Amino acid sequence: MARFEKVVICGVGLIGGSFALALKAAGLVGEVVGLGRRSETLEDALHLGIIDRIGADWSDALNDADMVFLGMPVGQMEAVLLSMVPYLSDHTLITDGGSTKTDVVASARAALGARIGQFVPGHPIAGAERSGPSAAQPELFQGRRVVLTPLAENSPACVDRVRVAWEACGAQVCNLTPERHDRTFAAVSHLPHLLAYALVHEIADRENADQLFSFAASGFRDFTRIASSHPEMWRDICLANRPALLAELDAYLTQLLRIRVLLASSDGPGLEILFDTARKARDAWFGGQGVTSEE
Ligand SMILES: NC(=O)c1ccc[n+]([C@@H]2O[C@H](COP(=O)([O-])OP(=O)(O)OC[C@H]3O[C@@H](n4cnc5c(N)ncnc54)[C@H](O)[C@@H]3O)[C@@H](O)[C@H]2O)c1
Ligand SMILES: O=C(O)C(=O)C[C@]1(C(=O)O)C=C[C@@H](O)C=C1
Fold it and tell me: In the record, what terms sit under GO molecular function (predicted)?
């Protein structure tokens, strides 16, 4: 397997840090250079052994770099790409881990111009509600999917190189178009985050919030875990995927109204059918993840 002698991670948090650690564990990388917004974060990443050194600037970091991984919130990507492009050489591959793809591809086209073929967009479907380098783990991507949304301008060799890197991290790679990607994740990732934030916010706003939280147990914990996720990251994702997310929100509101009608009319059989259908679908999905559900 061809090694990456020098990888630059710009945005060394949960995802960028885990990618670096996984590549290191696979023995696929020589030197990992970190760049970022805050020097304290980069110092942490250095002390945790995620990066081998902190890049002085783009010129230093990109010198002889084989690959650059963008691990910052999607709203930052265009500015970051614009700042790196003057120092980019022909052989350096760029990829990212952003949770939305249509906007990231548009940002990359605007910033990279004729160099767009060097950018292979990606998204690991693995993560956590924790952020920063201290949350990074080498096994985060083991057995998880990574979606690539290759561009017409990408050479098959570039796409293959990014696929190989993710496979070395233990991931299974598949391809989607950016539009299909964004519609899919609006439904199964972005909407759930919006709902978790909404529920916690609604409870927290009440006068007796402390008392309510004191009784909240595992059901509340499981439903709301992802409301502890990074607010800036989720602001950017929601705004970037606004049309698809609004459509999912409308579908969910329709479902809630349907449940409201069943409840208001004390329609026990109707509620039970709906719950049973949902439980079967959830169990089938969960079982397919290689985890057995509880009765
Ligand atoms: N958290 C998840 O579960 C998850 C999963 C898959 C993909 N993603 C995506 O991965 C990316 C990173 O998410 P994360 O969870 O690792 O976040 P994180 O907060 O752990 O890390 C982001 C890092 O980017 C840095 N950063 C922010 N702005 C920057 C800039 N302008 N230039 C350089 N560095 C900058 C931050 O300082 C931080 O170190 C996001 O695009 C997110 O959508 C997140
Ligand atoms: O496990 C979590 O905390 C996540 O939210 C991970 C999760 C998701 O499954 O929705 C979040 C955002 C991503 O872009 C990919 C994965």
Answer: NAD+ binding; prephenate dehydrogenase (NAD+) activity; prephenate dehydrogenase (NADP+) activity
Helices (H), 129-241: 156-168, 178-185, 191-204, 209-215, 218-224, 231-240
Which CATH code fits 4-175? 3.40.50.720
Cα separation, 10 vs 251, in Å, equals: 37
Does the Cβ of 14 fall within 6 Å of ligand 1? yes
Q: Which atom of ligand 2 is nearest to the CA of 124?
A: 15
ipTM: 0.99
In the chain, where does the domain assigned CATH 1.10.3660.10 lie? 180-288
Alpha helix segments (H runs only) across the chain: 14-25, 39-47, 58-62, 77-84, 102-112, 156-168, 178-185, 191-204, 209-215, 218-224, 231-240, 242-264, 268-288
CATH of domain 180-288: 1.10.3660.10
* 77 alpha carbon – ligand 1 mean position (Å): 10
Measure 270 CA to ligand 2 centroid, in angstroms. 32
- Write down how long the chain is: 295
Structural contact between residues 188 and 216, judged by C-beta atoms closer than 8 angstroms = no
CA 20, CA 35: separation in Å to the nearest integer? 13
**Closest to 12 (Cα-Cα) out of 3, 4, 20:** 20
For residue 203, give both structure tokens: 């409870």
Give the pLDDT band of residue 295 (cuts 50, 70, 90).
very low
Q: Which atom of ligand 2 is nearest to the CA of 192?
A: 10
pLDDT at 288: 87
Q: Whose CA is nearest to atom 37 of ligand 1?
A: 37
Query: Which of 8, 12, 15 to mutate to test ligand 1, by most ligand atoms within 8 A of the CB atom?
Result: 15
| Global model pTM greater than 0.95 | yes
